[in-house]
Write a structure and sequence with these properties.
Blueprint (H helix, E strand, L loop, with lengths): L4 H5 L4 H14 L5 E2 L11 H12 L12 H15 L8 E4 L2 H12 L5 E6 L4 H8 L3 E8 L5 E2 L1 H7 L4 E6 L12 H13 L3 E5 L14 H4 L6 E6 L12 E4 L2 H12 L7 H12 L3 H21 L15 E5 L7 E2 L9 E2 L3 H12 L1 E2 L1 E2 L8 E5 L4 H15 L4
Parallel strand pairs: 1-13, 3-4, 3-6, 6-7, 7-8
Antiparallel strand pairs: 2-9, 4-5, 8-9, 10-15, 11-12, 14-15
The chain binds pyridoxal-5'-phosphate.
Length: about 400
């Protein structure tokens, strides 16, 4: 069948491949532990569910204003001021079906053919594809693992030219867990300012910074008007399936994005919007509780991984991923497996994830889909017990490489 070009221009999700392989094994009766999760393993807090229930009981089941109901835009403004020192008003906020949807609307609104958009490697898988969907070109800039995966600024400067229209940043980062320090954020904004670029800040993991308070770029340099702040209820409030995220930025951008959204999804889900109000301005105690749990799990995972030869990782400053350097295994030979006949040499992160799935029965994500050639991603949004078992199984498998 012949489809429009844009379908072939974008890639599908990389985690899908591993999810499918793990599912095949499970179907064959093999127990597989998954460290693929890109979402909290906690349930959505009860007071948020109660608000949704109440909304349904009260018949709150119709279309809402396209950019979100005023109470929710107000709640988002209150939350941004309270937690992030980002001072904004409801007319500077648009609510969408998750922060990815907000980012999609923003890319379609701001970028077009001939434009270049800077993306830092390793990147969240959707960033290049969203830029492609806008017919613009992603330009990749390397980051420094030694320094929270902050940009290599020489390279960043060198890649900015008259076609550059924007920079997409994501701290805390998926997949690296890197959290940029204030200086790196400031330097990036100064560069954006000097070249008159949009700065799109994906703050989906803003509540999950473990070693330093998270600082929103819009609060670090409040004077720069071309910063767009993307936040989400997904990770902060364990609400991935509710699909509520929002963007704060200049009124004109909000108006243009609202026009786009009005012709695609009409509005975000009415019931989820009521739940999101309870999330953003209701009891916040679980945010700190979840953060403390993830922080403990991070310690557990990193400490146990550090005992395995050939592998190395840093303490991720945020999010719930360990980005494990597996290049020490490249060139090693592993025994025959059910998937691959004969002995084989490990050469890529994908080889390592397949080897780990095959011999440790643990599903992880290879770095290639994030634009990386040395790492694999392990999620610690799983129980302590699963972390311990999974890492022990990986250690046992690695002990057998030659
Ligand atoms: C960096 C990043 N941005 C955006 C998203 C999507 O979030 P949402 O559920 O708000 O669309 C994710 C989800 O994994 C993510 O990791």
């Amino acid at each position: 069948m012949i489809f429009a070009d844009r379908v072939s221009r974008i890639k599908s999700s990389t985690t899908l491949e591993m999810t499918n392989q793990a599912a095949e094994l499970r179907a064959a009766g093999v127990e597989v532990l998954s460290l693929l999760a890109g979402e909290p393993d906690f349930p959505t807090p009860e007071h948020i569910i109660a608000a949704a229930r109440q909304a349904m009981d009260e018949g709150y089941t119709r279309y809402t204003p396209t950019a979100g109901i005023p109470q929710l835009r107000n709640a988002a403004a209150t939350k941004l001021s309270r937690d992030n020192k980002v001072e904004t008003g409801p007319d500077q906020i648009i609510v969408s079906n998750g922060s990815k949807h907000s980012m999609y609307n923003a890319c379609l609104t701001l970028f077009q053919q001939g434009d270049e958009v800077i993306i830092f490697t390793p990147y969240y898988v959707s960033f290049p594809e969203l830029v492609h969907l806008a017919h613009a070109t992603p330009i990749f800039v390397d980051t420094d693992p030694e320094h929270g995966f902050e940009p290599r600024f020489n390279e960043l400067e060198a890649k900015i030219n008259s076609r550059t229209k924007g920079i997409i940043m994501n701290s805390p980062s998926n997949p690296t867990g890197g959290v940029w320090n204030r200086e790196a954020v400031e330097q990036t904004i100064q560069l954006a300012r000097r070249h008159d670029l949009w700065l799109l800040s994906d703050e989906s993991y803003e509540a999950l910074s473990y070693d330093q308070p998270f600082e929103s770029p819009a609060a670090v340099v409040p004077g720069y008007k071309k910063i767009l702040t993307f936040q989400s209820c997904s990770k902060t409030y364990a609400m991935t399936g509710w699909r509520i995220g929002y963007m704060a930025g200049p009124k004109e951008v909000v108006a243009a994005m609202t026009k786009m959204q009005g012709q695609s999804t009409t509005c975000p889900n009415s019931i989820s919007q009521m739940a999101a109000i309870a999330a953003l301005i209701g009891d916040q105690s679980m945010v700190a509780e979840h953060r403390a749990a993830y922080k403990r799990r991070r310690g557990l995972m990193v400490e146990r991984l550090s005992r395995i030869p050939f592998l190395s990782c840093r303490n991720p400053g945020g999010a719930f991923y360990v980005f494990l350097n597996v290049s020490g295994l490249f060139g090693k030979t592993v025994n025959s497996s059910s998937h691959q006949a004969g002995n084989r040499q490990l050469r890529t992160p994908r080889d390592v994830t397949e080897f780990i799935l095959d011999q440790a029965r643990v599903a992880t994500v290879s770095g290639e889909g994030f634009g990386d050639q040395e790492h694999i991603r392990l999620s610690f949004a799983v129980s302590d017990e699963d972390i311990i078992t999974a890492v022990d199984c990986i250690r046992a498998a690695v002990a057998n490489v030659n």
